[in-house]
TrEMBL record:
Xref: InterPro entries: HD, HD-Zip_III, Homeodomain-like_sf
Organism: Salix udensis
Similarity comment text for this entry: Belongs to the HD-ZIP homeobox family. Class III subfamily.
Classification of source organism: Eukaryota, Viridiplantae, Streptophyta, Embryophyta, Tracheophyta
Cellular location(s): Nucleus
Record keywords: Coiled coil, DNA-binding, Homeobox, Nucleus, Transcription, Transcription regulation
Keyword Transcription regulation: yes
Amino-acid biosynthesis listed as a keyword: no
SMART domains: HOX
Transmembrane segments: none
Name of the protein described by the UniProt record: Homeobox domain-containing protein
Signal peptide limits: none
GO molecular function list: DNA binding; DNA-binding transcription factor activity
């Protein structure tokens, strides 16, 4: 039983990690050169304007900029 709980915990942890495609990183890097700390509105605008970023949650984009 402990093994199944451990594997469940592991699945939950891995679902929080977001792996960006090279194209997504390139798009985020372009924005970063223009604005290293985009506002919440700007991040939402990015998601609307850039189809390659549409499957990433705004919170994850915020974290990307914080970690950059």
């Amino acid at each position: 039983m402990a093994l199944s709980m451990h594997s469940k915990d592991k699945q939950m942890d891995s679902s929080k990690y977001v792996r960006y495609t090279p194209e997504q990183v390139e798009a985020l890097e372009r924005v970063y050169t223009e604005c290293p700390k985009p506002s919440s509105l700007r991040r939402q605008q990015l998601i609307r304007e850039c189809p390659i970023l549409c499957n990433i949650e705004p919170k994850q984009i915020k974290v990307w900029f914080q970690n950059r």
